[in-house]
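Milestone M4 deliverable, item 7.
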Amino acid sequence: MKVVLLAVDSSPHCKRAFDMYLKQVRQPRTSCCLSTPWSPPSQPVALSFSFVNVSGEPGEAIVQAAEEHEADLVVMGSRGLGTLRRTFLGSVSDYVLHHAYRPVLICPPSKREATE
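Output delivered:
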């Protein structure tokens, strides 16, 4: 069984990554772990997911969760920062891409979102 780690929070970037997971990645024999900085919902979720609570620096926590759960793929969104802004503000997706020893799928913003 394949394990996909989906890094989520309440941002629209994560919603875009979740939608891409549902449309492009999910398969019948795929297990999905949602890596979240907040507690999982107390009610059952319509789709079956396991929740992984992480804390600390987001990039480091996602990389650690991917290793602990032996993820076959990490899926996450990106804010679409330019090179200069990414240098000063930092980029979680850039950190994960360069530090995870797992394949990483980064869902970029649409052209419209990037210009807003």
